[in-house]
Amino acid sequence: MIIQHLFSLGAKQPAPVKIALGCANHVFGDDKVNSKFLGDALDHWKGSLISILSSKLLIRNVMVEPMITDVTPWSKEDLETYRRLLKIESTSPICHRQSTFSGRRDEYFDGVPEGGDVFLDPDTGIATRNGGREHVKVLELGKLLSKSDRVLMVYQHSARGPFHKRLLEITDIVSHDIPSVHFTIYECGRVAVFFISLNRARIHEIQNALKTYLRGTAERRVWGSKGS
């Protein structure tokens, strides 16, 4: 049923949108980024979310930060396949296309341009303790949000134990460590996407748009916390 829902979300896609793109990939039950999983249901799901919200101008000037943890960067062919899965124009630049997520974290995230919204695609998601290369840290989210009204979209993979409880733990920590933050979450089985911003109105609009798109039984997958 989860896979069926993921593909139903991708139906009737709007025209391609021009977005600054990074790249990564995930598979159910596997925390490692690996190009052999390229084209799985999650790629379609992520692309659908970006496309739906972009078409309504609820996210804009989007940059997708890859956080690729492969030993080597992805090939040109794999990057172009990922671009097509996300309905991205061929002329759009790809962030960090020649690198992987390693070395100094501060330098890596300092390389994210100011202005515009950002999709962060870590292997696992937001760290609640000492995160590794498979996580983005709450402090890093705070820096990316600093003095702006941008929206951060953060992929969250399943963890051991009840997944919904894990999401609640993350929301508590984000709320505590980032003053005046607002967010909504699209929870889908064992994966989710966080939408986080200092701008309450933008998060409210995103939440309403997703609930409207999924109106009926499915809209329960979208829920909010502080400010939503």
Provide structural commentary.
The structure is a single chain. The protein is of the alpha/beta class. The chain has one domain (2-224): Rossmann fold, CATH 3.40.50. The chain is built from seven helices and eight strands; from the N terminus they run H-H-E-H-H-E-E-E-H-E-H-E-E-H-E. The strands form two sheets. It has a six-stranded mixed β-sheet, with helices on both faces. It has a two-stranded parallel ribbon with strand order 3-4. The longest helix is centred in the first third of the chain and has 15 residues, at 41-55. It is globular and about 40 Å long. It starts with a helix and ends with a strand. Mean pLDDT is 80; it is low at 1-33.
| Shape annotation | globular
- Protein structure class: alpha/beta
CATH topology label: Rossmann fold
Strand order of the largest sheet: 1-2-5-7-6-8
CATH class: Alpha Beta
Question: Could you tell me the number of beta strands?
Answer: 8
Low-confidence parts: 1-33
Q: Please, how many helices?
A: 7
Per CATH, the architecture is 3-Layer(aba) Sandwich
How much of the residues is beta strand, in percent? 5-15%
The biggest sheet, with number of strands, parallel, antiparallel or mixed sense and barrel status, is: 6 strands, mixed
**Measured distance between first and last alpha carbons:** 28 Å
User: What count of structural domains?
Assistant: 1
What would the average pLDDT be, to the nearest integer? 80
Secondary-structure element order, as H and E?
Answer: HHEHHEEEHEHEEHE
